[in-house]
């Protein structure tokens, strides 16, 4: 059966709780908005096909929730400590853990060390938590082509935390396209993150910025089209590089073959 699209991309929406990730997704995918705040549980995604420069692009857009709980772990144990304690071996040994055990609350399962004390090697229970964390991260980021980092223009804290989200992208994705989104940009009296400051930060991070409002449908379509164009361009550039490399390899093989014939 023939495909009804030319490209299939996975986009991931991340950011602090309450910044409007789900609202942006619903506005773009279904053109709907709900003023009632409902916390997203786990992970959800929607599908929409768009046309970019005459090509049909099918987008699988993932709306994530609960990432904040991972910060408790990463702020308690460094990545180096996790490796030193051999979490990888434990993961291999305990790959039979059930879905129920994987989705228990991290904060309930992890015994936090007192502030200022030296971290102790993790218990078996904490190792299981690390396994769950790795599986959750892998589920969120596996196969991602583009990431939308969202903050709330009425929340300075959510803007400050953007750096953490960008760092998480770097930790979990290779050469992924990124875009920064300041949502809830529909009430000037409540806005605390100034546009000028946001653009300055975006320039420093070498990332494009869009200020949006899912409520008023401001810049939502433009933002999603932009990240799609970035991903599509990156794909074509990578394909061009691969083709050039293949051509170079053929030339090298041809030259080597001619040299061997001369020697004979």
Automatic annotation (TrEMBL):
Record SMART domains: RAB, RAS, RHO
NCBIfam families named in the record: small_GTP
Region named Disordered: 245-264
Biased composition (Basic residues): 255-264
Recorded GO MF terms: GTP binding; GTPase activity
Protein name: Ras-related protein Rab-35
SUPFAM superfamilies attached to this UniProt entry: P-loop containing nucleoside triphosphate hydrolases
Keyword hit for Signal: no
PROSITE patterns: RAB, RAS, RHO
InterPro entries: P-loop_NTPase, Rab, Small_GTP-bd, Small_GTPase
Signal peptide limits: none
Keywords (A to Z) from UniProt: GTP-binding, Nucleotide-binding
């Amino acid at each position: 059966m023939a495909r009804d699209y030319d490209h299939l991309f996975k986009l991931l929406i991340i950011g602090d709780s309450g910044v409007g990730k789900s609202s942006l997704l619903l506005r773009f995918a279904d053109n709907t908005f709900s003023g009632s705040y409902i916390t997203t549980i786990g992970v959800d995604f929607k599908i929409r096909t768009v046309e970019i420069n005459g090509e049909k692009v099918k987008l699988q857009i993932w709306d994530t929730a609960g990432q904040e709980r991972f910060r408790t772990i990463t702020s308690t144990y460094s990545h180096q400590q996790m490796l030193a304690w051999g979490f990888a071996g434990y993961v291999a040994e305990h790959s039979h853990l059930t879905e129920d055990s994987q989705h228990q609350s991290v904060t309930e399962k992890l015994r936090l060390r007192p502030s200022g004390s030296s971290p102790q090697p993790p218990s078996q229970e904490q190792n299981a938590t690390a396994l769950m964390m790795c599986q959750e991260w892998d589920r969120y980021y596996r196969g991602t082509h583009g990431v939308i980092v969202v903050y709330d223009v009425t929340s300075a804290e959510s803007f400050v935390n953007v750096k953490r989200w960008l760092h998480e992208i770097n930790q979990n994705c290779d050469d992924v396209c990124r875009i920064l989104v300041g949502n809830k940009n529909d009430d000037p009296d409540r806005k605390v993150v100034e546009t000028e400051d946001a653009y300055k930060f975006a320039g420093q991070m070498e990332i494009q910025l869009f200020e949006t409002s899912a409520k008023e449908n401001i810049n939502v379509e433009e933002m999603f089209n932009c990240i799609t164009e970035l991903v599509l361009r990156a794909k074509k550039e990578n394909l061009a590089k691969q083709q050039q490399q293949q051509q170079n390899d053929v030339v090298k093989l041809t030259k080597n073959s001619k040299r061997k014939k001369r020697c004979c």
